[in-house]
């Protein structure tokens, strides 16, 4: 299985960073060996009766990487490029993320190989409910708690919740997070990942004695992460000069009015054509001369081929793996700070944890409470990584992985799993 899992660049990058961080933090070889391979990899066939009457079979995955610290936790994505190796890499990152953020959760990830834009809402519902049925024996509030990811949303989670609860015989709101507030979701969950990115930007700027009000920011991606990151940064006085979506990017050196842009993009279906902004490509956005670059779209967009074109002073990874391991080393040697995904985009899983806790307790918090608790977790986590980085003279990516591994190693040894 290990050979099959290691086919994607994402998985290889995660393993490379883990190995380097393990050596720096003097992690036990036994602990590293346990963490190299997921505990369980599930692949299922999902037959769906399409609207035209034909049956189409989709392939679904759920990789449960590690549950040493608590139940498996991680998103479900619907995308045509989903494969077992990619999901395994993302599941490993989730284990590291929950460990780094001091959450009592493990790591998992899942998805379906499908382009959701080509399915009707009725077809998506049937696909999701069938997928939930296949995953039923392996998920649950005390086993594995899925959440939204690329191509999925709160409605997807609502369908899974309903299917799982119907088959269990009673309501189990804690089986998923990122669901609508009306059926047990948490206030502040929709904006959590983007808000966490902004809290991370604030802390990264603090290391250089700078303020978000005095810098320029470019954000690749204007979806569930990028849109909220742009909106939250704009609310704090940040100058967002460029954003992008799947159609392309826009640029205005004087700054974009993000509130007007959100309304425009909702009406037009894209940011392209926004008045007063110049159309540029997604690649051009990555190479703008800005203070902060936040790639919030897909993985591998900054790599060893284009890395020397990057001119931003700080990169904050809103997406999973947008900067490859090799590119990260080059950027660090060029004096560019890269705040890695397991820290920077951790806001989503933090508030997912808050949602899970609220569901188990049947007591729900005000949004201000959620935001305040999220800020505390993100700030403390950044400080841990920054301290390790300064002490060991290592980049932030390696340092974040090392901090995560140290907590996991201790837990593995206490449980007798890595002597």
Describe this structure as you would to a colleague.
- By secondary structure, the protein is of the alpha/beta class.
- Among the domains are: 36-171, Rossmann fold; 192-344, Rossmann fold, CATH 3.40.50.
- It is 45% helix and 17% strand.
- The protein has helices spanning 2-5, 9-24, 29-36, 84-100, 121-135, 154-168, 192-206, 226-235, 258-268, 282-286, 325-333, 341-344, 347-361, 367-392, 396-414; strands at 40-49, 55-66, 72-79, 107-113, 144-148, 216-220, 239-245, 248-251, 278-280, 292-295, 314-316, 337-339.
- The strands form two sheets. The chain has a seven-stranded mixed sheet with strand order 9-8-7-6-10-11-12. Strands 1-2-4-3-5 form a five-stranded mixed sheet, sandwiched between helices.
- It is globular.
- The protein starts with a helix and ends in a 5-residue tail after the last helix.
- 55% of the residues are buried.
- The model has no long low-confidence stretch (mean pLDDT 95).
């Amino acid at each position: 299985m290990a050979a099959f899992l290691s086919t994607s660049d994402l998985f290889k990058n995660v393993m490379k960073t883990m190995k380097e961080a393990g050596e720096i933090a003097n992690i036990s070889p036994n602990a590293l060996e346990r963490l190299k391979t997921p505990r369980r990899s599930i692949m299922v066939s999902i037959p769906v009766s399409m609207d035209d009457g034909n049956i189409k079979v989709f392939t679904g995955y759920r990789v449960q990487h590690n549950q040493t610290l608590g139940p498996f936790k991680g998103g479900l994505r619907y995308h045509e490029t989903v494969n077992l190796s990619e999901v395994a890499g993302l599941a490993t990152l989730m284990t590291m993320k929950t460990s780094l953020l001091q959450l009592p959760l493990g790591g998992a990830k899942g998805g379906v190989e499908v382009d959701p834009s080509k399915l009707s809402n009725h077809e998506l519902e049937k696909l999701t409910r069938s997928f939930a049925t296949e995953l039923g024996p392996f998920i649950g509030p005390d086993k594995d708690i899925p959440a939204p990811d690329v191509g999925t949303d709160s409605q997807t989670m609502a369908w899974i919740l309903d299917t799982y609860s119907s088959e269990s015989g009673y309501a189990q709101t804690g089986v998923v997070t990122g669901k609508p507030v009306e059926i047990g979701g948490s206030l502040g969950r929709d904006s959590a990942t983007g808000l966490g990115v902004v809290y991370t930007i604030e802390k990264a700027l603090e290391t250089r004695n700078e303020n978000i009000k005095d810098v320029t920011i470019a954000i690749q991606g204007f979806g569930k992460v990028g849109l909220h990151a742009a909106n939250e940064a704009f609310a704090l006085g940040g100058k967002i000069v460029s954003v992008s979506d799947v159609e392309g990017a826009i640029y205005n050196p004087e700054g974009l009015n993000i509130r007007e842009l959100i309304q425009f993009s909702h009406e037009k279906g894209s940011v392209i054509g926004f008045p007063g902004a110049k159309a540029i490509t997604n690649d051009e956005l990555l190479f703008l001369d800005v203070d902060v670059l936040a790639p919030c779209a897909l993985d591998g967009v900054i790599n060893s081929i284009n890395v020397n074109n990057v001119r931003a002073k700080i990169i904050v990874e809103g997406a999973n793996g947008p900067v490859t391991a090799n590119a990260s080393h080059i950027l660090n040697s060029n004096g560019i700070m890269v705040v890695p995904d397991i820290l920077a985009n951790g806001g989503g899983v933090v508030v997912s944890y808050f949602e899970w806790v609220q569901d188990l307790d049947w007591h729900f918090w005000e949004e201000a409470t959620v935001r305040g608790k999220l800020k505390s977790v993100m700030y403390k986590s950044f400080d841990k990584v920054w301290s390790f980085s300064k002490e060991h003279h290592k980049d932030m990516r390696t340092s974040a992985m090392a901090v995560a591994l140290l907590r996991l190693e201790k837990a593995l040894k206490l449980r007798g799993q890595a002597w």
